[in-house]
Amino acid sequence: MKSRSFLWLSASVLIATIVLSGCGSRQPASSTPATRTVTDSTGATITLPYTVNRVADAWHANNAVVLMLGAGKKLVATTTVVQTIPWFIKLDPQITSLPAPFTSTAGEVNMETLIASRPDVLLCSAGQFTADTMAKFKDANIPVVQMPAATFTDLKTTVSITGQVLGPQEAAIAADYNSYLDGNIQRVSSVTASIPASQRPTVLHTSQYAILSTDGANSLIDAWINYAGGVDVASKDITGNQKSITAEQIAAWNPDVIIVGTAPNGTNVQAILSDPKWASTNAVKNKRVYANPTGVYLWDRYSAEEALQILWAAKLLQPDKFPTLDVAKETKAFYSKYFHYNLTDSDVNSILNATAP
User: What is the signed CA dihedral for 145, 151, 156, 161, rounded to 10 degrees?
Assistant: First the structure.
């Protein structure tokens, strides 16, 4: 009897052990939530899929931020403007094959194309779309994250929000970039802050030769001109971004330096130097007219390469104050770290002179 009892007890223990062992080997239910939230620049709380893999970006400049954060492959919809930028295409050839529901016309969108791209999220600048269009996004169940575009603080906020939307890895790169940007601002302004107004060249920045516009006080462009040791001639008369100006205003301002936006093969620079309407300015007289560098996006605007723009402008406006600053070397290091692309000397020359690769 004792033997049978012992055998029965042993069998019971064995069965219990097997059952418990089986229970222990089961995978626990996933603790990963289906969604998460981010707060955009308007203060709105936006619900996103926990993992964002499909991004529509309606803001030309911010496409380059997404690429810089290592998430170019997450783009599923872009703008027609981005698809024409030679250096963006060079670094990310697939951009030309993506749907482009957003055109060069501000606030314009092809909803059918956008919906067909099945984005997890739509990124845009604050106020880019009308209330009616925002309602269409809501009806299509497309979460929209809006980001600011006015100052250096706004640029850092935009980079941070973009990183938060994309995921933890991208958020870490965003924090690193913002630290690099702050470092460059400090590196330059610590030298230029003590330069008196009498030793600062007056600077006009205009987007194009044919369509005259400039940025005045309380703008990012006004800020980098001042950081770099110059004086924005428009700041005393104009506030905000991309305000229309006339040739007469430019003549009255009489800038010492003119920086003009991108155009093929420096044609903007040559047009200004040869146009009688500009001939009276000190900048033309002294041939101090320069093309603003353009890479993956315009360096002078609210995008990734703004961190390099500060260095370039400082070297341009106050060369004696920055004898060891090597903008070409800085550009190579930036592209290697953030775009994972090794520039040649020829590549750097192309970017700094705003020509196609």
Answer: -10
